[in-house]
Amino acid sequence: xxxxxxxxxxxxxxxxxxxxxxxxxxxxxxxxxxxxxxxxxxxxxxxxxxxxxxxxxxxxxxxxxxxxxxxxxxxxxxxxxxxxxxxxxxxxxxxxxxxxxxxxxxxxxxxxxxxxxxxxxxxxxxxxxxxxxxxxxxxxxxxxxxxxxxxxxxxxxxxxxxxxxxxxxxxxxxxxxxxxxxxxxxxxxxxxxxxxxxxxxxxxxxxxxxxxxxxxxxxxxxxxxxxxxxxxxxxxxxxxxxxxxxxxxxxxxxxxxxxxxxxxx
Length: 265
Hints:
Elements: E1 16-23, E2 30-34, E3 40-45, E4 50-54, E5 62-64, E6 67-69, E7 76-80, E8 85-91, H1 93-100, E9 111-113, H2 114-117, H3 124-129, H4 134-152, H5 159-170, H6 174-181, H7 185-196, H8 200-221, H9 227-233, H10 239-250, H11 254-260
Antiparallel strand pairs: 1-8, 2-7, 3-6, 3-8, 4-5, 4-7, 6-9
C-alpha cells in the first residue's frame, strides 16, 4: 500500500515520493534488498531495530532504531527481527534539505539513525509504535513533516537545483545537460556534488537504474518479460551490458532480484 502523493497535503507533494507501510514478514527475520535509487529513504520499524549492511562492502552491520539512507550506488541488506512491519518514506533529494535542513550530500553513500540526522524526530518511532492503524501512523508522519517544513522550508530558493536535476534526469550525457543548462561541465559537477554528494554521471546512473527497475516490474506483472527488450528501452547497448550494470548496482542479476521479490518463479 502506497500513499498517493495527491492524497498528501499539497505543501509536501513536491518533496515526498512515497509514504507507505511495509511488511517484511511477521514472526521471522525479514530481509529486504535496498536498491539504489534517486531518493532518500527513511525506514521506521514498528518495533525492534533495523540491521543494515552493504552488499559487497566489508564491515559489521549497523543496528538502528530508524534508518535514513542517502543516495547510494550499491545495494543494502535490511534485516528486521520479530515484527517485520513499519513505515517507509522516500524523499526527493531536495526534500531532505527543505524538510529537515540537512543537505543530501551529508548522507551520500551511507545510512544513519533518524535521531542523529534530525534530533527533533528522535521520538517519532515510539509515537508511530503507539498508533493502532496505518491511517493514524500516516497522519503522524504528515504532521511531523509539515511542522518541519515550517521550520526549514523557506530558508532557500530551490528552483535552480530542481531545474538542474530535471535536466539531468531527462538526458543521458552530462555534457548535453550542461549545454542545455548553460553551465560548464565543471560548474555542473561542483553544484550537483555539493548538493547531493554524487557526481552528475552517478545521478544519471541512479535515474536510469530506477527506471529500469520500474520496467522490469511492469513487464513481469504483465507476464511479457523480456530482458533484452527492457535493456533496449533503457538505453543499454545489449542485454549483457544491462546485466553487468544491474549486478554492479544491485549485487545480483535482474532475474535473481525478481525471483527474490516474487515477481517471477
